[in-house]
Design a protein that fits this description.
Number of strands: 6
Number of helices: 2
Distance between the termini: 51 Å
Strand order of the largest sheet: 1-2-6-5-4-3
Length: 139
């Protein structure tokens, strides 16, 4: 009986903490969503890229926007395009990370990160532009 009361109390405190964290963080999350959307509006996609759709998530620890495209550009062409396009609005190239089915190209701007995910298998003609906050990878 005593053990279950302690468990219930701990669980209740945990749930309250999560709810309070979300309530307190909500204004910051909304602000970051607006900033990421404004950044996206400044980015000109490649002329031959077809916009497929977008999505977003927002949690107290991370806010992310994803924009999907279809393109006939090669990885190198896409890399060169976004190096110039993102530099134009203040983003810095950070690194390129080849993975199993994709290659990530990371750019930083303050506490934000832009990642181009160029898919190699099975969708070699698609890529996703992610804009996220915060970034542990940006100095």
């Amino acid at each position: 009986q005593k053990r279950s009361n302690i468990f219930f109390l701990c669980f209740a405190v945990f749930l309250i903490a999560i709810v309070l964290e979300n309530i307190i963080a909500q204004p910051k999350i909304e602000k970051v969503h607006k900033l990421l959307e404004a950044e996206f509006q400044m980015i000109t996609s490649p002329p031959n890229a077809k916009f497929l759709g977008s999505g977003q998530t927002g949690k107290p620890q991370r806010v992310e926007h994803a924009y999907d495209y279809k393109t006939a550009m090669t990885f190198d062409e896409l890399h060169q395009y976004y190096d110039k396009e993102l530099a134009r609005i203040g983003w810095r190239y950070m690194n390129t990370l080849p993975l199993n089915t994709e290659t990530d190209i990371d750019y930083c701007k303050g506490d934000y990160i832009a990642t181009i995910k160029y898919y190699t298998v099975p969708y070699s003609d698609t890529y996703t532009l992610y804009l996220s906050w915060p970034s542990s990878r940006c100095p």
